[in-house]
Amino acid sequence: MEGFSTDVAAVGDVFLVVAIQQTTTIEIRQPFGIRVDGSTGAILDPAPIVLGASYAQLPAVTGLSDRW
User: Fold this and answer.
1) What share of the chain in percent tops pLDDT 90?
2) Where do the H-state alpha helices sit in 1-68?
3) Residue 24 contacts by C-beta under 8 Å, 6 or more apart in sequence?
4) Would you say 19 and 57 are in contact if contact means Cβ atoms under 8 Å apart?
């Protein structure tokens, strides 16, 4: 998972890692995330989860009881 401006939060034993990915131009940045099992380090998603459209700023994630 290539990206920059990463942030991480846990809900139980599962972590959500979010980042920004630069695309074809400097203006277009796409936020994405991926879930990771805290016990094994296994990636739980077959592909990154797209979190928004272009022109995204720095992503942030917070765990709230049973969701992010």
Assistant:
1) 44
2) none
3) none
4) no
Strand partners, 31: 20
Instruction: Return d(Cα 30, Cα 13) in angstroms, integer.
Output: 26
Cα distance between residue 45 and residue 34, in whole Å: 6
Under 8 Å between Cβ of 8 and 61: yes
Q: Which residues does residue 64 pair with via DSSP β-bridges, in sequence order?
A: 67
Which DSSP letter does residue 39 get? T
Q: What percent of the chain has pLDDT over 70?
A: 94
The owner of tokens 């994405």 is: 32
At 35, which amino acid appears? R
Contacts of 60 (CB under 8 A, 6+ apart): 7, 18
Q: Is the pTM of this model over 0.85?
A: no
